[in-house]
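Run log, item B.
One chain of 112 residues. Sequence copied directly from the ordering sheet:
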Amino acid sequence: QVRLVESGGGLAQAGESLRLSCTTSGIILSINPMYWYRRTPGRERALIATLTTTNKGYYVDSVKGRFTISRDDTTNTLYLQMNNLKPEDTGMYYCWTDGVAWGQGTQVTVSS
């Protein structure tokens, strides 16, 4: 059974950095495209970053240049490095791949 567990969220001030982790079991990251989603207050969960099986990252405009998605194939862990955080980055962050149940997410709160 595939399991995704997000961690690393917390409180940050604008301009600071956080690194989110997605610990996985039952899945090999290198052969599955992986995603980070974000749900902000009052909005649906939205895709913000994609990591292809060829290790190429794609980002929505709002996080491009500030966030980096990556993976560690030895530990099957997915990461999201978030730099220069902004208050609008506040939300619940989820990792995901196709056909897998959503995890609990990790909360990120950025103050101005």
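Observations after the first pass:
- The CA atoms of residues 17 and 73 lie 23 Å apart.
- The mean pLDDT is 96.
Flagged for discussion on Thursday.
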